[in-house]
Amino acid sequence: MKIKISDGGPVFSRIVAGCMNWGEWGANLDANQAEKLIKDCLDIDVTTFDHADIYGHYTTEELFGNTLKNNSSLREKMQLVTKCGIKLVTPNRPNNSIKSYNTSKEYIITSVEQSLSNLQTDYIDLLLIHRPSPLMNPVEIAEAVGELKKSGKVLYFGVSNFIPSQFEMLNTFVPLVTNQVEISPLHLDPFIDGTLNQCITKGVKPMGYSTLAGGRFFSETPEERVLRINKIVDKLAIKYNSTSDKILISWIMKHPSGILPIIGSTKINRINSAIEALQIEITDEEWFMIWEASTGEEVA
Asked: Which residue of 58, 143, 204, 224 is 20 to 30 Å from 102, comparing CA positions?
């Protein structure tokens, strides 16, 4: 299933494959395993892959790109998302002395050039500013994006982790097609801080990461809040002859903003489960049961 994420914006797969854990920060896949996972995703119509330059201490894009280098025909079947703007302290960036943000025109363009080289591609479908910097200059950002779009190196532009006022400011200078934010029954902020409301108003569909809360729902020693949520989710899984992860993803996708869940697992069955969650439509009351279990109290 494909979905257009904004008017005049890109068409993405309804479920997005998150690549943060593919390399050093997670499964540490080798080239053959990465190629197999890419092909497995494409086989089930998960065609959108989410990256960031910093993943794997600046190495995961290259892992992915080596697969495209060896099989260039895969590129035309997929959409690539990547992010820039965070500077990590790592041996791979010896000049970075402190973790910080950089959203200058020069840094954005340089980061994109590096990502293009790493990913072995001529263009990035969607570029995101990874975190809002207190020092970001929207005029500079717009100039960088304008040059990158004119050259065909970036097709669309958006942001990640922006609050509504930050989104509004930057969107005034350059059109944004999405806001990628953390969202799950354990992270309710976007539901109540205006982020998702703004997406609906602007006609852009948000992308959601950590939709399963980084595996906290499946912990061997879950916290009290997780236990409350799991109690409801397990009952719904029985009702819908499903599994808990599918119920949790269906809860995310019920929101009218049209959230695109990013599934960060390297196991294809987990990614396929998210697709199967598209077939589950929990009721409004069931949605609020999970909400109440999360907050620990009924709605006002």
From this structure: 204
